[in-house]
TrEMBL record:
PPR repeats lie at residues 205-239, 310-344, 345-379, 380-414, 449-483, 484-518, 519-553, 554-588, 589-623, 624-658, 659-693, 694-728, 729-763, 764-798, 799-833. Keywords: Repeat. Gene3D superfamilies: Tetratricopeptide repeat domain. PROSITE patterns: PPR (PS51375). Residues 31-54 are annotated as: Disordered. PANTHER family: MEMBRANE-ASSOCIATED SALT-INDUCIBLE PROTEIN-LIKE (PTHR47939), OS03G0201400 PROTEIN (PTHR47939:SF13). The keyword Repeat applies. Transmembrane segments: none annotated. This is Uncharacterized protein. It holds the Pfam family PPR. SUPFAM superfamilies: HCP-like.
Length: 858
């Protein structure tokens, strides 16, 4: 503790220091000068009245003191600050008289204001409980104007004066300084003051500190508030729950919920006794992330403390649960809210509607909307937006349009989000006319924007309606809506898909004319388009142009180049390009390798494909299901079932599950090899893992059993196919009819043929070949000729194989003239007879029942 001063007189060394510092620190302590009889700034004269009342018990003493003050004040006109300090110190036991003296001298002309004088006065005033209340008014006056002292300097000088004159350091004086500075609106100065106090291990009082934090946040000086709070905590200050409340709220203002939560956790860990308001802000913070689990736990903590959250907090938690797709938890919190005596408001109802819509339960969402009306609540734009989006999400666009119309009738202007949602819903159902009506209406009302147009343009281009897209583009331009780079990319993609690369290139030029810059997607679309047109030279020119424009090639661009080369049969060039790209720093993806492997398989080079597959791990790329499936399919088609099975086993060992395509490839491979036992094992395995056979699997199985002349099994597979609701296509019907004809079941084959025609499936030359072959083998030559006649009527040109089958049939029946006439008919149709034809005509040789059967296999 600082001891009381022993002498009211300053010694010579102190005098010299004070004189020098007074000159240096001659900054005003108040905003205006006063006459000797005026009170100080910010004062009402109450101080002198207080002094008078204190001395009222001894009128003679009071009068003498007053004369003495007047005399001292008169002499003070020519006194240095040190003389004023000595006079104030002489009244150290009479603080009110010291203040009265200070008021008299500070208003005189020529008075030199000194921070030290002011600090000594404050120390004297702090000595008496009665005069302490005067300190605040003195400080308020000092800080009321721009010319007041720096509060941080005042803190330093207060401490120095206490040490020099052995005052007992009264800590509340620093709180008075800090709060007066804050209340005067000098918050930056107050922050410096607080930091200076902390440097001297003087911690501000909680109320004073909280006032400063609140003032900073109110002025949007959030970062300064947080730095100050962190500084005080690091210095060991025990901030209360109100400070935590303010600083957490500041984090939410900055949209930093994670940091608000961290302040809450720190406060809990340091033992700060937090109130319900702090918990409420913490819940808001975790809900903004969102983290519904943490929010629910905080709700439970509030419940344990017998605090009832507000309706807004309950709504906040319910909304967070819905955002995270946890409708069940949202409904539980809703029940807890009702049990606590709170009523559901529109926000809660709207959140629950959204939850039901997201979970696919549109009916419950609509029921909640009915309850909103029943309870007298008025739905707002958010409510309608949730329902419009929910209805479209659940494929009930008509209901969405009802809500759209209802909100307009209520005077609520739909947002562009509502319009775009509704249009997207109609387009997903291919209801173009309805979508156009909404679009036209929104355009007339000025709601439609470039995103609305982009959405429509994208749909038209994806549907191949490029002419309509161009018309819409013209309307967008005439409406004054500027297209974005997304708009241009969409139209360029449409032109590329339409094969009109000239139009796509024109749009690239237009982008530059508009002062816009094409992006990596723009170039990728054009490069892909030129590759598909077979113009690889132009594609590579664009790749160089892209580099010259300073646009970095993305993975998409490089994969486009690799894919383009592979599609035109230049897989070897694609491999060279990939090596070049890797040398330039490109990191290939699994998709990159899959493209090359697929290209090599397509070209029949399975060995090179396997080599690329083995390179993948070396370059840090793991094969995926598509990689294995592509290879398995290739090896199955090349009749290398052993390697296909080894890849399948390796795939399983890596924990990769075979997809339907992989099973289809393996089953088809075994069916082609007439190994129906293995094929059926894979078929059963496919069912066990929860996959459903598709048309390809069923067709392969039917064909496999047909090739083994086991039509009973083939028809059994066909029955399962029908039961699964998978429609038969031409290939399936061809296989069934061919197999039945081989077994002589002409009636059943005819029934399937009629069924096929009734479904609108037109036979092709392969099916006609199977029909004629089967009829000829069973001696039904006239029926076979009737089939030939049907081919002529439908414009299907018979093949040389079909003529050979009919010529052989006529030879078997001894109708040589008819056989030779068919030969002439072949020549008239421009068909060239083959060696088999002449073997039949010249030598009478034919293969009988087995000759055309294999050739006509589906």
């Amino acid at each position: 503790m600082y001891r009381a001063v022993r002498s009211p007189v300053v010694n010579s060394l102190q005098l010299r220091a004070l004189l020098l510092r007074s000159v240096a620190d001659s900054k005003c302590l108040c905003s205006q000068s006063q006459s000797p009889d005026d009170t100080g700034p910010g004062s009402t004269g109450a101080e002198e009245s207080d002094a008078a009342r204190i001395s009222a018990d001894n009128p003679l003493e009071a009068e003498a003191a007053d004369h003495q003050l007047a005399a001292s004040a008169a002499k003070s006109r020519h006194l240095a600050p040190v003389d004023i300090i000595n006079t104030i110190l002489s009244h150290r036991h009479e603080p009110e008289l010291a203040l009265k003296y200070f008021r008299r001298v500070e208003g005189r002309r020529g008075f030199v204001r000194s921070v030290d004088v002011f600090c000594v006065l404050l120390h004297v005033l702090m000595r008496s409980p009665k005069s302490k209340r005067l300190v605040r008014s003195v400080l308020d006056g000092a800080f009321s104007g721009d010319s007041g002292p720096s509060s941080s300097m005042l803190v330093d000088r207060l401490i120095e004066c206490a040490q020099r004159f052995e005052f007992e350091l009264e800590l509340p004086v620093f709180d008075y300084v800090l709060d007066s500075c804050t209340q005067a609106g000098r918050v930056e100065d107050a922050v410096d003051c607080c930091s200076t106090m902390a440097k001297h291990d003087i911690m501000p009082g909680n109320i004073i500190f909280n006032n400063l934090l609140a003032a900073l946040v109110k002025r949007n000086m959030v970062e300064e508030a947080r730095r100050l709070y962190d500084q005080m905590v690091s210095k060991g200050a025990r901030c209360d729950c109100f400070a935590v409340h303010i600083i957490m709220q500041a984090c939410l203002i900055q949209k930093k919920p994670e940091e608000a939560e961290e302040y809450f956790r720190q406060a809990v860990g340091s033992g700060v006794e937090l109130d319900a308001a702090c918990y409420s802000i913490a819940i808001q913070a975790v809900c903004q992330k969102p983290n519904s689990r943490s929010a629910c736990l905080l709700l439970e903590e509030m419940k344990a403390k017998v605090w009832v959250p507000s309706v807004g907090i309950f709504g906040c938690v319910i909304g967070a649960c819905v955002k995270q797709g946890n409708l069940e938890e949202a409904l539980r919190v809703k029940d807890e809210m009702l049990s606590s005596g709170k009523s559901l408001n529109l926000v809660v109802y709207t959140s629950l509607m959204k939850g039901y819509c997201m979970s696919g339960n549109l009916e419950n969402a609509l029921n909640l909307f009915d309850r909103v009306s029943q309870e007298g609540l008025v739905p707002n734009e958010v409510t309608f937006s949730v329902l419009i989006e929910g209805c479209c999400r659940n494929k009930n666009v008509e209901k969405a349009h009802e809500f759209y119309s209802q909100m307009k009738l209520m005077g609520i202007r739909p947002s562009v989000f509502n319009v775009n949602t509704l249009i997207r819903g109609y387009l997903e159902q291919n209801s173009k006319d309805e979508a156009y009506r909404v679009f036209e209406e929104a355009s007339d009302e000025g709601i439609a924007n470039v995103f609305t147009y982009n959405q429509f343009l994208s749909w038209l281009c994806n549907e191949g309606k490029i002419t309509e897209a161009c018309n819409l583009w013209g309307k967008m331009m005439s409406s004054g809506i500027a297209p974005t780079i997304v708009s241009y990319n969409t139209m360029m993609l449409g032109h590329c898909r339409d094969g009109d690369m000239e139009a796509a290139t024109r749009m690239l030029s237009e982008i530059a004319e508009k002062g816009m810059k094409p992006n990596v997607i723009t170039y990728s679309i054009l490069i892909d388009g030129f590759f598909k047109k077979g113009d690889s030279i132009r594609a590579f020119d664009l790749l160089e142009e892209m580099a010259d424009a300073g646009i970095d090639r993305s993975t998409v661009t490089i994969n486009t180049v690799i894919n383009g080369l592979c599609k035109v049969g230049r897989t070897s060039d694609a491999r060279v390009m990939l090596t070049k790209f890797i040398d330039e720093g490109f990191t290939p993806t699994c998709m990159t390798y899959n493209t090359i492997i697929h290209g090599l398989i397509k070209e029949g080079d399975t060995n090179s494909a396997l080599g690329i597959f083995r390179e993948m791990p070396i370059n840090g790329v793991s094969p995926n299901v598509v990689t294995y499936t592509t290879l398995i399919d290739g090896f199955c088609k090349s009749n290398n079932m052993g390697l296909a099975l080894r890849l399948r086993n390796e795939m399983k060992a890596r924990g990769l599950k075979l997809d339907l395509t992989a099973y289809s490839a393996l089953i088809d491979g075994f069916c082609r090899n007439k190994d129906m036992e293995r094929a059926h094992e894979l078929y059963s395995e496919l069912l066990e893992v929860g996959l459903s056979p598709n048309k390809v699997v069923y067709s392969s199985m039917i064909s496999g059993y047909r090739n083994l002349n086991n039509m009973v099994a083939a028809l059994g597979i066909h029955k399962k196919m029908v039961e699964e609701g998978i429609p038969c296509d031409l290939i399936t019907y061809t296989t069934l009819i061919d197999g039945l004809l081989k077994e002589g079941k002409l009636l059943m084959a005819s029934e399937y043929y009629t069924e096929m025609l009734n479904k609108g499936i037109a036979p092709d030359v392969t099916l006609y070949t199977a029909l004629i072959n089967g009829l000829c083998n069973k001696g039904r030559v006239k029926n076979a000729e009737a089939v030939m006649q049907e081919m002529h009527q439908k414009g299907v040109v018979p093949s040389v194989l079909i003529y050979n089958m009919l010529i052989a049939a006529h030879f078997r029946e001894g109708k040589l003239q008819k056989a030779f006439s068919l030969h002439d008919e072949m020549l008239d149709r421009g068909l060239v007879p083959d060696n088999i034809t002449y073997d039949i005509l010249v030598n009478g040789k034919f293969r009988g029942n087995n000759y055309p059967a294999e050739a006509s296999s589906a």
